[in-house]
């Protein structure tokens, strides 16, 4: 009888002690149903993956009448369906992957819906029961009328009547349609309807023959007894149980020249497959309302929270005041004049009045010890101490200058004790107290007819070349925040979508249908490009329009830089997706890379302030040079002719290329985008 599939000397292992196929030989006659039976872990799924071309044999030859992937219909053990698509959309998607026309897809859809008793074609898959979803999965293997059908547990969980109906259809396909069918099943007695039975255990085929012939040969009443008998014989022959019994089997070396693949595709990129992927991605996003809200709402929430929570000066900070020259405390200041050259009145009141307008709460204490104790108990951030003859000593110091006595110099000092455990608050208060004192002295000099500038430090700050006179941390960090967000939002989306498809077996099934990694990446990139453009626009509006961060640069160059950063993050997401087999692993990689990129890219602190070693390598990170380029574009208005700007663009492009090359390398090492 003519063979539809022949496997000779098949060896496959994943590690030294994990040899899955051990010299397996298999022959599937043309136009027959071949029932492949065996316990879990015996190598059935690996064998099927080798047949459909998703896994390469280490040694061995697979010869099949099916020459291209469209000649094979494959139903994996898992349902492997896009839950947000309708039945009709699912059929159209897989039909286009197999190169069918829309009229052919429509005709086959009608036939399969009737045959498998499927619900209405417009039903969304996630609304179907488990059995209905499994029938849809089975229909996808039949939709393009393939020569070779490979079905992994197609009837699990189905109604017995429907199971029998499916078997009758398979028998009809084999006899009338001359189709070859390989089927695995847990229902051993159900497999008696197959023309040929292959019993597999421990990576080898124990025997293959017609079901009745097997029972006659081994004098058994059913196939289960046959399998048990053969398993005992194999066990007794090897002398040991478990996988370790095969460690002594000679494992041939890999041939230097690869054998041609059993199935070939139709090129690296096919327009019909690409468009099917693109339309599917659009439906996937449009139906996932929660995901769309998350993708478009997260940038708004992040940028808004950042602007409201970060970079603003703290308010309501308590400062203890001990004014020994005021007999009745700060209450004396109420009735004293705020202007005029009254050097005989308490000058401490004028200074206190000057700093009241700086969001400082003044808390009066009678004794210096009490004030310092308040700082120690975290009731105040500092204590101001005016000596008992402060105003008299200060007047003498101003009037006599070099002739002032040492006592006058000492008593005219304003003593301040600060809590500097919080650098930002401590430095801000210190600056407010010093600048407030300078303003207070200028007012006194002006009121007394002396030159006000004589009270200033002899340093004059002119209008800044870039930025404002009073820069804020929020303006410093805004470019970095946008760059980091534009890098990580596409990363999160890419990892989420790709791992969902990978872990659900959808990606594997699509690639068996002929989809290439290039088509997957390009189709996803097109959709992601639209999303990241919207995300970038929303963040720019929030940062530079709503919250008015400084923007003096070229809008077009800034937009291009942000898009490049988004593409870089997306490519990093592809790399994480092909490396990771679980969402936990991907989360660890994504979260683990987030903090180093934020802390070393100049977002939280200037790179000039980092350790020498970090400073020497920090610029290599994907977000470092683009962050400086973003600052140069938005705050300085520089163009592409400046090295800071074009270095940011070059860095983004180089990282995109690096991530793509590494992704391709990992795919090649792991032999495709697939979960173990």
From TrEMBL:
It is found in: Membrane. The keyword Glycoprotein does not apply. It is a multi-pass membrane protein. GO terms for cellular component: membrane. SMART domains: AAA. InterPro entries: AAA+_ATPase, ABC2_TM, ABC_transporter-like_ATP-bd, ABC_transporter-like_CS, P-loop_NTPase. This is ABC transporter domain-containing protein. It holds the Pfam family ABC_tran. GO terms for molecular function: ATP binding. Residues 5-227 form the ABC transporter domain. Keywords: ATP-binding, Membrane, Nucleotide-binding, Transmembrane, Transmembrane helix. Residues 235-262 are annotated as: Disordered. The chain crosses the membrane at residues 476-500, 512-543, 555-579, 586-605, 648-667. Gene3D superfamilies: P-loop containing nucleotide triphosphate hydrolases. It comes from the Eukaryota.
